[in-house]
Design goal:
Distance between the termini: 16 Å
Low-confidence stretches: 62-74
Number of helices: 5
Structural class: alpha/beta
CATH topology of the largest domain: Quinone Oxidoreductase, Chain A, domain 1
Strand order of the largest sheet: 3-7-6
Largest sheet: 3 strands, mixed
Mean pLDDT: 75
CATH architecture of the largest domain: Alpha-Beta Complex
Helix content: 10-25%
Shape: globular
Number of domains: 2
Length: about 160
């Protein structure tokens, strides 16, 4: 099978890789017909995520959002995503505001709700897709997503040709 493989900062390749194998009773093998590019991928490609080593296959079916800070008195500060540089949060200014602070990578706790809303038509996910590419066009797709401010990319989808 073919996959986008990370080989270090700024170095990826569309390569032939071994087919996945089922090694545990809970494993499944899924054929990916389409995938999206996640903001986390961009940080990985820049070398901002040292835990990702050469040989890692990239791509997300469902992804998170870029880091955001929401500051509301008595509310929450949600820090979601991977940062490529320092993200300073001044606790000395926040402690008096009666807030809850959470941080971490995007989790999947809301995925069942999101999938239900999409499958029942309450959310039209297609409205968020701004760019389509073939799987083999990953270089151009990543470039477009990395320059979202210039290309107006919101969600970039890569998919295999219809058979």
């Amino acid at each position: 099978m073919r996959a986008l493989v990370y080989h270090g900062p700024g170095n990826t390749a569309w390569e032939e890789v071994p087919d996945p194998e089922i090694t545990d009773d809970g494993d499944v093998v899924v054929r990916v017909d389409a995938t999206t590019i996640c903001g986390t991928d961009l940080h990985i490609l820049k070398g901002d995520v040292p835990a990702v080593h050469s040989g890692r296959i990239l791509g997300h079916k469902i992804d998170g959002t870029q880091a955001e800070y929401v500051r509301v008195p008595g509310g929450r500060i949600a820090n979601i995503g991977v940062h490529g540089e320092a993200a300073t949060l001044h606790l000395e200014e926040q402690w008096i505001r009666d807030i809850t602070i959470t941080t971490g990578l995007v989790d999947t706790s809301s995925t069942p709700t999101l999938m239900r809303l999409i499958t029942t038509g309450q959310i039209d996910a297609k409205r968020f897709i701004t760019h389509h590419f073939g799987l083999e066009e990953f270089d151009e797709a990543y470039d477009v997503f990395a320059r979202a401010a210039d290309t107006s990319a919101l969600k970039v989808v890569l998919s295999r040709p219809k058979e």
